Amino acid sequence: MKILIKNGRVITATDDYFADVLVDGEKISQIGQSLSDPADKVIDAAGKLVVPGGIDAHTHLDMPFGGTTSADDFESGTQAAAFGGTTTLIDFAIQTKGQSTLAGLETWHRKAEGKAAIDYGFHMIVTDMADERLPEMGRLADEGVTSYKLFMAYPGVLYVDDGTLYRTFRQAGENGTRICMHAENGIVIDEIVKAAIKDGKTEPKHHATTRPTRMEAEGVYRAISIAEVANVPLYIVHLSCADALEEVKRGRARGVDVMCETCPQYLFLDDSYYEREGMEGAKWVMTPALRHKSNQDVLWKGLALGHIGNVATDHCPFCFKGQKELGSGDFRKIPNGAPGVENRMSLMYHGAVVQRRLGLNRWVEITSTAAAKTFGMFPKKGTIAVGSDADIVVFDPNRKETISVNNPFTHHMRVDYSAYEGFQIQGFSDVVLSRGRVMVEGGKLATTGGGRFIKRARAGELLR
Ligand code: URP
Ligand code: ZN
Ligand code: ZN
User: Fold this and answer.
1) I want to staple 86 with a disulfide (CB 3.0 to 4.6 A). Which of 54, 144, 361, 405 is the partner?
2) What is the mean pLDDT of residues 40-62?
3) Average pLDDT over the chain, rounded to whole?
4) Which residues surround ligand 2, an ion (CB under 5 A)?
5) Ligand 1 pocket, 314 CB below 6 A?
6) For ligand 1, is residue 66 a contact (CB within 6 Å)?
7) What are the residues whose beta carbon lies below 5 Å from ligand 3 (ion)?
8) Which pLDDT does position 239 carry in this prediction?
9) pLDDT on residue 69
10) CA angle (87 as vertex; 296, 304 as ends), nearest 5
11) Segment 449-464 mean pLDDT
């Protein structure tokens, strides 16, 4: 199948020009002026942007967590992603404590295979790492799982101690792979939480009041220090606040290989959402918690100056009815996480380009190219170039929509609320191609299934 995308404005992380793009099978085969090759389908992209498909490097699909399971599985989550212009996800497989990481990987392959509509990779969440298990990490890398996530938060669930951090960091460094870190001092936070509950502070807002930004900053500082000694590239996930960013800047200034991602929720939402009536605030109970509004400008500036290198969603949806409600009367029981995989590209276009904080190239970089480069998928993914996968979004920079759970154009996630309800946003995807297949066109899903697992390269290596 050949598809010719005509008359569009091609934007990559570095380029901006008008051209036609020819897709032959799964790949981009030609880029040029007035291409006239015969094609099975022609897409007129006049007035539109032609950009690489978005890459969301942080999702939790079909994940058991907080006594329930995240509401999107690999079918609904990847379809919603495609509607929003995202054509690659990196989800988190989990090692069950005491069991093999390879068994965890197998479980996540079974969840995704045959269901995913777009391509996907896995990070591995490490929940323990006895010495005798260390060789498994090399086998995971050979299988294309070249990054690991560890948690300083959630004691008794996903938390690991500093010794485990160091052992895993060192092995990851030796294998040429990358560490992703949930950096928050969960042990101290648990003490603050205990005291709050004792004082009768049980409403959703106390999820936030018990998680000071300083405890995130301390986690970031500690993770960077351990990574520096263990000699491993570090990626801080879901960085939420100025205090934590300051530690990243300090580490980078002294030459540590550390970068960080933030998420749309920390750029667009703030802790006033927890003040809503009754249990309503539970919709935004996530970790780290939403912060004071003053942090938002600092994060946007971090993106502009390059201190923050990527934007992912941490999409971890739980329905309000029946899931978030589990924490009625005790905020500790609210499953942590919020939906967003479908909204990232548009929110970031609006906040970056429409609101003039960042340029078009940087928008593409932080929503696609940076993730491809950081996580061993470039130049197969993350750019518009001859030979790259035809993961292409024809993006309408002028289309305006109000994001709502009730807007069939903005909500395909299997969750009964939108974290961005009522946001008036400009810039939406029009046609979405995943490896040369038309996934979305005219607001309709054109293809189901067909997503493939991506065997990612090691840190800094190319993937073709
Ligand atoms: O609240 C969140 N972020 N839930 C997902 C798990 C995590 O920490 O990323
Ligand atoms: Zn996390
Ligand atoms: Zn997460």
Assistant:
1) 54
2) 98
3) 98
4) 182
5) yes
6) no
7) 314
8) 99
9) 98
10) 30
11) 96
Indicate the domain borders of the chain.
Answer: 53-374
Average pLDDT for 205-209: 98
What is the Å distance from ligand 2's center to 288 Cα?
Answer: 7
The rounded radius of gyration (Å) of the Cα atoms in the chain is 21
pLDDT band at 412, cuts 50/70/90? very high
Q: Is the C-beta atom of 338 inside 6 A of ligand 1? A: no
One-letter identity of residue 412: H
Mutual angle of helices 134-142 and 101-112, in 10-degree steps:
30
CB of 59 shorter than 6 A to ligand 1: no
pLDDT digits (tens, 9 = 90+) for 385-410: 999 999 999 999 999 999 999 999 99
Q: Is 336 in the pocket of ligand 1 (CB under 6 A)?
A: yes
User: CA separation (Å) from 80 to 75, 190, 256, 344, 394?
Assistant: 9, 35, 36, 11, 17
144-170 confidence digits (pLDDT tens): 999 999 999 999 999 999 999 999 999
* Ligand 1 atom 2: residue of nearest CA: 337
Q: What is the b/e burial string over 67-76, where b = at least 16 CB atoms within 10 angstroms of the residue's CB?
A: eebbbbbbbb
- The pair of structure tokens assigned to 388 is 């790259």
211 lines ligand 1 (CB under 6 A): no
* Tokens 């007129």, residue located: 44
Residue whose Cα lies nearest atom 5 of ligand 1: it is: 337
Q: Class assignment of domain 53-374?
A: alpha beta
The CB of 60 under 6 Å from ligand 1? The reply is yes
How many angstroms separate the CA atoms of 340 and 276, rounded? 20
Confidence at residue 359, expressed as pLDDT on a 0 to 100 scale:
98
Q: Which ligand is nearest to the CA of 324?
A: 1
Q: Which ligand is nearest to the CA of 58?
A: 3
Q: What is the pLDDT of residue 440?
A: 98
Which ligand is nearest to the Cα of residue 180, counting in written order?
A: 2
Ligand nearest to the CA of 90: 3
| DSSP structure string for 243-309 | HHHHHHHHHHHTT--EEEEE-HHHHH--GGGGGSSTTGGGGG--SSPP--THHHHHHHHHHHHTSS-
- Axis-axis angle for helices 213-230, 162-174 (nearest 10): 50
- Residue 460 pLDDT > 90, yes or no? no
Q: Is 287 in the pocket of ligand 1 (CB under 6 A)?
A: yes
- What are the structure tokens assigned to 266, written together? 């920390």
The sign of the CA dihedral 267, 272, 276, 278 is positive
